[in-house]
Amino acid sequence: MDTKICINEDLSLSKRFLKYLVPSVIAMWVFSLYTMIDGIFVSRGAGELALASVNISMPFINFIFAISILFSTGASTIIAIYLGKNDLKNANETFSLNIVTIAILSIFISIISFLNLDKIAMFLGATDSTISMVKDYLSIIILFNGFFTVSYSFEVIIKTDGFPFLATIGVVISAISNIVLDYLFVIKWGYGVKGAAIATGLSQIFSTLFFLTHFLRKNSTLKFTKFKWNFNTIKRILSIGFPDCTTELSGGIVIMLFNQSLLKFIGENALVSYSVICYVNTLVLMTMVGITQGMQPLSSFYYGKEDSDTVKKLLKMSLKAISIASIVTFSVCMIFTKPIVSLFISPKEIALFNTSMTVFRIFSISFLFVGYNVVISGFFASIENPFVSTLISLSRGLIIIILSLFIMILIFDGQGIWMSTILSEILCLFISLFMLKKKFT
């Protein structure tokens, strides 16, 4: 099949970029917004302690998505490169190998997790007052683990297949079903955190089935096909996907460290404030990831065609989009702090509400810098330079943020926790810009 069908080279580069960027960003917004709505339902239907319990559970969900990203990003990059070379056979074999591998791996993860549920809950930082709700939430999420991983992989690869709009539709289906089921299970039937977990799990089943029907239709470029267990291909997938996986996984580790630090230096109420920050931070981060994912299929395609000029143009377009998104995001968070926080915390809780608004504004400064680190890391992954991409991802997502957390606590005690992300993103930006300059000089 002609790869022109996949990328549509009849359009100008800017229109092709927007064709991929807009659906990717919308898909990420929808995902983030229904995650926020999930938190709002939990807070209003089961209480603020339940909201903190879900936040404590988040690192495990980060782990599930990190596994999917590990395979999905690598596979989609390799598939796009093969399509750029008009090698449909290897593209289909890579696609099939990827889906089967993550499906088997997810079953293994579910079994191990069920057998160690108590240990996982305690490791994540569950307290005496939250452990029962943390275990209730996790036990159901674990049950649906396979649908989380496969659905996200389909969503990423369907864009590489040339149907970015369908990716958005799939996410919207998942979002709407999750919101409706949240209302039923949490608000109307009073199932609390269990209801929120069931709603989220069922929504992933719906999106998985929707994406699966696409790949079984005739108009799909990519098809399921027979394949051999090529461990060199798996190794290649893992090496490319590792940076983005690190970003997601380290996000979970950081949430866990922040939760434990807040409990130690401030108290349990700080977990509620941090839960609000986490939901909004997810929306912001996913916006930046959406821009990056809009660039990656095109960048990988032209990298496969050895068209370096077009690859550079795509990077410039992405950086410009990130600049606009960063300024708009920061401005919205500063202007609309009160209504944003009131979605999760009642203004009647005066002390908690005012404190949450203050720390939210402090944390929001980091939104001015995070996007550049995400897109530059994604760019290096798209041109099969996983070393640099991993360096940036590990720096911003794990190493520098942990160092910043400890430094800011030493200097400012507990209040330094809220400022540590700002320092981390700025320091990482120096590394990102240095590596980018080195690449093009």
Key terms for this structure?
mainly alpha; disordered N terminus; 441 residues; globular
Describe the model.
- By secondary structure, the protein is mainly α.
- The protein has one domain.
- It has helices at 4-7, 13-46, 48-84, 88-115, 117-123, 131-143, 145-160, 164-188, 192-215, 231-265, 269-304, 308-335, 337-342, 350-364, 370-382, 386-412, 420-439.
- The radius of gyration is 21 Å and the shape is globular.
- This is Multidrug export protein MepA.
- One of its GO terms (molecular function) is xenobiotic transmembrane transporter activity.
- It is a multi-pass membrane protein.
- The chain crosses the membrane at residues 20-41, 61-83, 95-117, 137-158, 165-185, 197-216, 237-258, 270-291, 322-346, 358-381, 393-411, 417-436.
Helical residue percent? over 70%
Task: Give the integer mean of the pLDDT values.
Answer: 90
Secondary-structure-derived class: mainly alpha
Shape: globular
Number of helical regions = 17
Major sheet details: none
List SSEs in N-to-C order. HHHHHHHHHHHHHHHHH
Distance between the termini: 37 Å
Q: What gyration radius follows from the Cα positions, in whole Å?
A: 21 Å
How many separate structural domains? 1
Strand content: under 5%
Stretches where pLDDT falls below 50 for ≥5 residues? 1-5
Number of strands: 0
